[in-house]
Amino acid sequence: MNHWTSWRSFALIAGVAFAAAACSSVPEWTSQSIKESAAPIVEKDGKQVQIRYNEGPYSPYADTNWSKYRTLSYKESIPAPPVVKVEMPKDIKGDVAKGKKLFESRAKAPCTGCHVVRDDIWPMGDVGPSLVKFGDKKFKDEFVYQMIYDMRSINKDSFMPPWGASGAFTPEEIVHLVAYVQSQKGPPVKRKDPNIDPATRYVSEGFGDNLDPTNNPAIAMSEATAAKMWKKAGPNGKTCDSCHAGGAAKMTGVAAKWPRFVKTYNRVMAIEDFLGPHAKDTMGENIIPAQGNDNIHTTTAIKMASTGMAQNIDMSSPEMKEALERGKTSFYNRVGQRNHACADCHTEERGGGKFLGGRKLPLLAMPMNLHFPTYRTNFAKIWDMRKRFQWCTLPLGMNFIPGDSIEYAELELYLASFAQGKPLRAPGLGH
Amino acid sequence: MADVKIRLPKSIAKGQVLSVRALVTHPMETVERGKDGKIIEKVYNFIHTVTVTYNGKTIMSGEMTQSLSANPFVEFPLKADQPGKLTVTFEDTTGEKHTGSIDVSF
Amino acid sequence: MKSLSYPDSACSRRKVLRAGARIAGLGAAIAAFGPMALISRPALAQAKGVQPEEELAQTMERLFGKRPIKDGAGMVEFTIPMIAENGSVVPARVEVKGAMGKGQYAKAIYIIADKNRRPLSAKYTFTQDAGGALVGTNLRLGDTSNVRAVVELSDGSLYQAVQEVRVTVGGCGG
Predict the structure, then answer these.
(1) Which of A24, C56, C84, C106 is 20 to 30 Å apart from A201, CA to CA?
(2) What CA–CA distance (Å, rounded) separates A405 from A16?
(3) Domain C66-174's class?
(4) Does residue B33 belong to the interface with chain A, where contact is any CB pair within 8 Å?
(5) For the segment A297-318, what is each residue's pLDDT rounded down to a tens digit?
(6) How far apart are CA A330 and CA C137, in angstroms?
(7) In chain A, what are the domain boundaries?
(8) Of A61, A355, A378, the CB nearest to C86
(9) Residue A366, class by beta-carbon neighbours within 10 Å (0-12 exposed, 13-18 middle, 19+ buried)?
(10) Under an 8 A CB cutoff, do C120 and B65 touch?
(11) Number of inter-chain CB pairs under 8 A, A vs C
């Protein structure tokens, strides 16, 4: 059932004349990941839901189907949400207390993720402008209503989600939010605790040395899994060890060259994407499907064999150049109910380096790829970058696309393009 | 067992009091609550005791609880007055012992 | 040796003191038993079920009775982040520094998270052979809370350092 197609086979059928045109089209891939990563839409209790990981952070979003909204799929046909201009309802009176509740509701946004207000709410972020003196600007309520409903109608470059247009907040809720932000006025706010305000907040130094095996559990976890997987035989009796004797630790330098274009599969792949199909072709079965723990841990062990080595991805082929362009497009592509792009949170011009709630957003230029897979302290699990992508986009109100999709491999390639020559340092260690 | 990692400082002088770290991969299960908010009664698997011995002599023992993180580590002092074997044993509520050893030399 | 540990409130302070007296008498025997003699065995209690929730005051009473706890400034070096990036892994380190009385050593370090279901998070007991007293570990904190490190010297005197730790969360659920 894990069949996959590619434009190559299509081009072979269509003939040579078509092949030239197909070169600039997008290759196709049928997911070979674990089911939770491929995330099929199924019917449950009469409702369409999406199957996702049944673990930690995914639970608040359960299985909500966001299929009304754009995804990062190259085949996406849903247009960007139109810019909307509306009238403020006249029959509802704004309630400051209700507005405050909505403003800080984690089930809703929360607005405090990006904006600082006068109240001591924990934690507040500073991706968007501070609102402590917003009421002093004396904007008309109708104008503020429009800002929240769809800021793009006022400033086309705004990256604030169109809260009303997307249906995230009802008109009545927005009226209360207007009342609350208009109440933000008066003399400068003096905070007892400097940590409340992102501007004066103590910046956490993180979790210490990620390469210390007595500090980062991912090292022992990966070594143990890789040792087991290296000896696990496929239906034809072959093991990883049959061809790659000595285990993951012997694969020195290999990881520094990925993601790369793999001719056999006619697509750009990260190591995680490659392991499953490669096992299927050499051992007779995909015994290590993408996003499964066996896959992520084994990938981590392979990457550990290149710790400290400079990333050295060959970007010169036309396939890689096209993939990089597509990856960049994805980075700036607006998706989900919130109509956000990766760039909104991870470039310096926008939210990158600022506090989203209580945590600093990493910057594209840092770079963002070298520490993946990474140990996530809140869940005591190792995540590969694809699982992180899936999690990043879920609170935006975007359905999963499969972890082993070409879209994610090429998005990773774009992130990796900022890391050439810099040392690999997986596994990372983060919140 | 291989699930305990121990780290000594790179160079050790005789008689020096070192700081040593040991990490064990373990879920350290936390209590689960039912829909009624009540704790589900069962044996939760977590490490309750860590013991550090040096050449067979106990130098530290610790009571560990579910308030410690999954895959916990412990850092402790060691007076390296003679070469020898340092052993760290973590025992969990299922009765399983997770042990790691390392040789201390100068 | 079960009475050596006092994992739950069922174990009265009197019992603990009695056990302490026995240790003094049986020092040589402990050495002969090897490491097992010093291991506390709360597992026995846990195997029977979940230990009850405790308020901070109950925990302090259970552990220290009415003994006074002095300010540990200058002696207890307690390193824990003011803001924890999440509540699942909060690195904490306690080191006992500074002058103690002659022949004195730190025999135990307690790490107590005020608002956890059971505040006592860890207790480490040192023998004189340890040559020092420091401990590092990762805590779980349910919520923003005070965390305290209590050091017990060999004469039974207690010193503590307290630090508030804010537990953070991401901006949009991540």
Answers:
(1) C56
(2) 26
(3) mainly beta
(4) no
(5) 999 999 999 999 999 999 999 9
(6) 41
(7) 31-65+203-431, 96-198
(8) A378
(9) middle
(10) yes
(11) 82
Contact: C88, A396; criterion CB under 8 Å: no
Phi-psi region of A210 (alpha: psi -120 to 50; beta: other; left: phi over 0): alpha
Half-sphere exposure of C143 (CA within 13 A, CB side): 5
Contact (Cβ atoms closer than 8 angstroms) between residue A241 and residue A247: yes
C-alpha span between B41 and B32 (Å, rounded): 9
Residue range A96-198 forms a domain whose CATH class is mainly alpha
Q: Kindly state the average pLDDT of the residues C25-34.
A: 35
Q: Which of B4, B8, B10, B25 to mutate to test the interface with A (most CBs of A within 10 A)?
A: B25
The strand ranges marked E within C5-89 are: 69-71, 76-79, 83-84
Token pair belonging to A352: 């990158």
Q: Say yes or no for a CB contact (<8 Å) between B67 and C118.
A: yes
Q: What is the DSSP code string of A21-74?
A: HHHTSPP-----S-HHHH--EEEETTEEEE----SGGGGGGTT---TTS--S-T
Q: How confident is the model at residue A335 (pLDDT cuts 50, 70, 90)?
A: very high
Minimal-distance CA residue of chain A relative to B4: A220
pLDDT reading at B102 higher than 60: yes
Tell me the per-residue pLDDT of A141-199, one tens digit each, with 9 for 90 and over: 999 999 999 999 999 999 999 999 999 999 999 999 999 999 999 999 999 999 999 99
Interface of A with B (CB under 8 A): 212-215, 217, 219-221, 223-224, 377, 380
What integer pLDDT is reported at residue C15 of this predicted model? 30
Q: What is the mean pLDDT of residues A205-222?
A: 95
State the complex-level ipTM.
0.95
Residue A404 CA to residue A411 CA, distance in Å, equals 11
Q: Decide if pLDDT at C18 tops 70.
A: no
pLDDT value, residue C24: 34
Is CATH 3.40.50.150 the right assignment for the domain spanning A31-65+203-431?
no
Element (H, E) at A178: helix A171-182
- CA-angle at A429, arms to A428 and B4, nearest 5°: 100
> For B7-32, what is each residue's pLDDT tens digit?
999 999 998 899 999 999 999 999 99
Place of tokens 């269509």: A14
Domains and CATH numbers, chain B: 4-104 (2.60.40.10)
Chain B residues inside the 8 Å CB shell of A215: 21, 23, 73
Residue A403 DSSP SS3: coil
For chain A, helix, strand, coil in percent to 5 are: 35, 5, 55
Domain residue extents for chain C: 1-52, 66-174
- Note the Cα A310 to chain centre separation in Å: 24
